[in-house]
Each structure stands twice: as structure tokens, then as C-alpha cells.
């Protein structure tokens, strides 16, 4: 296999004078601009509602919640906690950590590219990542995925450093980054087999030379990388135990993906720019096969594992996208004329612009919780009640708190650990004339919910309105 070509002498001399700072800084600036553009446009949706409401829970309630559900996101909820407590525009405040993580990942992509293939590759790789629609999409979401991507880039950087100059400090730093990656999202550990493969296969190790003339990492770095991963695994045992017990509640909605889902992945990543991005990555793969392994193997593993236990979703392999951009940037830098990569980069920006605009539209998220809350605020009356079916649905919708704070919640008795029983709800409905029902589509899944059946016996439903997947209906008493 061919190693990553050394940067030309003139470029190395120029890099020595300016240290490649501009080539690394420009992607960060673009990522911040792209991440901030239209940040408050789309409403928070149900997953973001969970993030914010859980981050605002008292610690005792938070511990109980994580013991039953969502332990895999515990670290993210703790990191979001200080942001969720800040005043200001809600969407901007709670999405800000993801914007910053997106910019940090763009920096890491550019820094890795500069180390492996020179300053031109740094600029191209960082800009490609900053412009990629799927990365921008999750840079504007109050969930952990942008942060997971940033830590995946950090772990990859530390792996390269460990293999280049093995030391105890480098080993500890890499192990800590792997543990952090797992605590943020267990599925991101699918990157680690790709890391170990490049560390242990000599042909791939040679492609990670950081400087022209370097001898390449030797076995010491590979052994230390394995030791670091083993130590990280020990640190992840408590999370693995908790997650195993919550698996059925956490990812029950995932289905085994078929070839159609895998074929759709490039479009999910880059929309109309997919051909440009993936063609550049293929061109770069021959020059940096180790990077190709990092970018491709996690997606392949996720798809393969999902045939037995579904774990695949495009956002669950988002951490591979910065490495895909790294590979594509190396490919662009290897093109024969300097003007050609600039043209390709401009073409990519033009092709992804419609997708970038679309993801900032108010209807671009699966749910429109902001309009739902505004509807309730406009139409509620004194004495109205609200019922959530299933009971956990309050977490899915109540991030825009106003109307939910005023409406009496019939779903549970205050202070009780679980939802009301049918008998308790029947008693609570006496003398109540109007109840707002908030639920998914009832269908057959929730038709037998005892609270829903009690409501059916007592009140009459009105028109159902939908806000993405969320259904709202007003139930009234016939006098």
C-alpha cells in the first residue's frame, strides 16, 4: 500500500513559517458560521425535549431516571446541565454545546490532515467537514452526537500521536479519550476496532507517518494502544452493565437495515454533494488507507451487527463522518493542479446548499413542539387538564414549559413513582369538562392503555391535530 505522500518541500517550508494556522483556523470559522446559521429556526423536537428536561431534573430525580432509562446518555445530560439552566433563547442556549463541538471537530479534522498530509489537505478536509449537511444537522441539536464526533476525532489524533511517539503519557491520554467516547455513546466504540487494525497491521501503520522521512510507528505503539483500550474497557464496565439492562427500552424502535439503507447512507451524509465527497474520499483512500479504514469500518460493522442486533442509524455512525471528510481532504490535496481542488470544493458547497437551507426550515425536525405549546397556550381554559399517553410522553413534549406548568397533569399523582391507575384517573376526572390528550398515534399499540380507555369512557374526543409525530386532541364532556 502507498503511504500518504510527503508534502512538497516548498509547502513544508511555508508551513514551518506560518505553522499552518490559517488552514486550520478557516474550517473552525466556517463551522461556527454554519452551526450558528438559523440555529433557533427549527423547534426543539422530542429527543431534544428529553435532553433539556432531564438536564434540569433535581439530582435525586435524575438518578432514579437514569437507573430506569437512558443511562447511556448520562454524561451528556450532566454536561448539558449548566447550559440548560442559563437564561436566553431556549433553542440557542441548549444547542450551543453542539455548535462548539462541531467547531472543535472541524479543528481536529484539519489538524489531523495537516499532520498526515500537509496544510492543503488540512484546509480542504476541515472545510469539507464544516459544509457537510449531516454534520451541520447534528451541530444544531441538543443531543450528544456532535460531541461524540469531536471526541472521536480527538481519540484518533491521540492514537496517531501514540503510534508516532509511544510513551506512557500518550497511552494514558488515548485510553482516557476512548473511555470518554464510550461514556458519551457506546456505539461510537465501533471506531476502536478500526484504530486497532491500523495500529497492528504494519502496512497500515506506515501510512500514519507524521513527517517525511519518519521511520513510522513500531510495535511499542501498537502494544500501548491495546493496553489503553483494555483500560478504557474497564472504565466502561458500569455503563455497559446499566446499558445491557435498558437495551429493550432504549433501541426497541431500530430495525435490521437492508442494502437500501446502506445505499442511502451517502445521501444522508451529503445530499446532492454525496458524489463529490465520496469520490474525493475514494481518491484519497489509495493515498491514506489507514484513514479509509477509520472512515469505513465503523459503518460496515454497524450494518453487520444490525443483522443480529439492530444498532444502525445514520446518526449513530455520525462519528465516522469527520474521518470521511479527512479522507476526502487528503484526496483533494493529491489532485494534480491546485485550482482543481478549489473548483471541487466550490462545487460541493453549491450542491449541499439546498440541504443546508432545508435543515433550517421550521418543519425540518420530526416534531414541532414549539407550535404545539403555542396552540395549547392559546386555547387552554381555566380548569383544563392534560393527559399523556404513554405517561413518559411528558418528557417528549414539555420542553416549552408554559402551558404544561399551568395545566393540571392527570397522568400521575404528584409525588407518586408511577402513572395513575385507571381507578385513580376515573376519580380525578369527576367534575372535569376538558382534557387535552397528548400522545403518538394511538393505533393498536396504545389502544389498550388503561388511562386511554378510561378517558374514552368518560369524555368525547374532538379533532386531532398533529405536530410531526405528536398528536393533540381535546376531549370534552357532553352535558
Automatic annotation (TrEMBL):
Name the top EC class.
transferase
Enumerate the transmembrane spans: 24-45, 92-114, 145-163, 175-201, 221-242, 262-285, 291-309, 316-334, 340-359
Q: How does it sit in the membrane?
A: Multi-pass membrane protein
InterPro entries, per this entry?
A: LipidA_mod_glycosyltrf_83, RgtA/B/C-like
Q: Which UniProt keywords apply?
A: Cell membrane, Glycosyltransferase, Membrane, Transferase, Transmembrane, Transmembrane helix
GO molecular function term, any single one: glycosyltransferase activity
Main localization, broad class = membrane
Q: What is its EC number?
A: 2.4.-.-
Domain Glycosyltransferase RgtA/B/C/D-like per the UniProt entry, residue ranges: 77-210
UniProt subcellular location: Cell membrane
* Name of the protein in its database record: Glycosyltransferase family 39 protein
**Where does this protein come from, organism-wise?**
Nonomuraea spiralis
Amino acid at each position: 500500500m502507498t503511504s500518504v505522500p510527503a508534502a512538497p518541500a516548498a509547502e513544508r517550508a511555508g508551513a514551518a513559517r506560518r505553522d499552518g494556522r490559517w488552514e486550520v483556523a478557516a474550517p473552525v470559522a466556517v463551522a461556527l458560521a454554519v452551526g450558528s446559521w438559523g440555529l433557533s429556526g427549527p423547534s426543539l423536537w422530542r429527543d431534544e425535549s428529553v435532553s433539556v428536561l432531564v438536564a434540569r431534573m433535581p439530582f435525586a430525580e435524575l438518578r432514579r431516571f437514569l437507573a430506569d432509562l437512558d443511562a447511556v446518555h448520562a454524561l451528556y445530560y450532566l454536561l448539558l446541565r449548566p447550559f440548560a439552566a442559563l437564561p436566553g433563547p431556549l433553542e440557542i442556549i441548549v444547542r450551543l454545546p453542539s455548535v462548539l463541538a462541531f467547531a472543535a471537530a472541524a479543528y481536529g479534522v484539519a489538524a489531523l490532515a495537516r499532520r498526515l498530509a500537509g496544510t492543503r489537505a488540512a484546509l480542504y478536509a476541515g472545510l469539507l467537514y464544516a459544509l457537510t449537511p449531516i454534520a451541520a444537522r447534528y451541530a444544531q441539536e441538543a443531543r450528544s452526537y456532535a460531541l461524540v464526533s469531536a471526541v472521536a476525532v480527538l481519540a484518533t489524533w491521540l492514537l496517531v500521536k501514540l503510534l508516532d511517539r509511544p510513551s506512557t503519557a500518550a497511552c494514558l491520554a488515548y485510553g482516557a479519550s476512548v473511555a470518554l467516547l464510550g461514556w458519551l455513546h457506546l456505539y461510537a466504540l465501533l471506531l476502536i476496532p478500526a484504530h486497532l487494525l491500523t495500529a497492528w497491521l504494519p502496512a497500515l501503520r506506515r501510512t500514519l507517518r507524521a513527517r517525511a522521512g519518519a521511520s513510522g510507528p513500531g510495535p511499542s505503539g501498537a502494544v500501548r494502544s491495546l493496553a489503553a483500550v483494555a483500560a478504557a474497557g474497564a472504565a466502561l464496565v458500569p455503563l455497559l452493565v446499566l446499558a445491557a439492562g435498558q437495551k429493550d427500552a432504549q433501541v426497541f424502535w431500530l430495525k435490521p437495515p437492508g442494502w437500501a439503507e446502506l445505499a442511502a447512507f451517502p445521501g444522508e451524509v451529503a445530499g446532492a454533494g454525496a458524489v463529490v465527497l465520496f469520490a474525493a474520499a475514494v481518491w484519497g483512500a489509495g493515498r491514506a488507507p489507514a484513514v479509509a479504514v477509520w472512515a469505513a469500518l465503523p459503518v460496515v460493522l454497524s450494518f453487520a451487527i444490525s443483522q443480529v442486533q439492530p444498532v444502525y442509524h445514520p446518526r449513530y455512525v455520525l462519528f465516522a463522518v469527520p474521518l470521511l471528510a479527512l479522507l476526502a481532504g487528503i484526496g483533494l490535496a493529491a489532485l494534480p493542479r491546485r485550482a482543481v481542488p478549489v473548483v471541487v470544493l466550490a462545487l460541493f458547497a453549491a450542491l449541499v446548499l439546498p440541504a443546508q437551507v432545508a435543515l433550517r426550515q421550521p418543519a425540518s425536525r420530526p416534531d414541532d413542539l414549539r407550535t404545539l405549546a403555542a396552540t395549547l397556550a392559546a386555547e387552554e381554559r381555566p380548569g383544563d387538564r392534560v393527559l399523556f399517553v404513554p405517561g413518559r410522553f411528558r418528557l417528549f413534549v414539555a420542553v416549552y414549559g408554559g402551558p404544561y406548568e399551568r395545566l393540571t397533569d392527570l397522568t400521575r399523582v404528584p409525588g407518586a413513582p408511577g402513572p395513575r391507575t385507571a381507578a385513580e384517573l376515573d376519580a380525578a376526572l369527576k367534575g372535569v369538562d376538558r382534557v387535552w390528550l397528548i400522545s403518538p398515534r394511538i393505533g393498536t399499540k396504545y389502544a389498550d392503555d388503561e388511562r386511554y380507555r378510561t378517558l374514552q369512557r368518560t369524555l368525547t374526543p374532538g379533532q386531532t391535530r398533529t405536530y410531526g409525530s405528536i398528536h393533540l386532541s381535546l376531549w370534552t364532556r357532553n352535558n
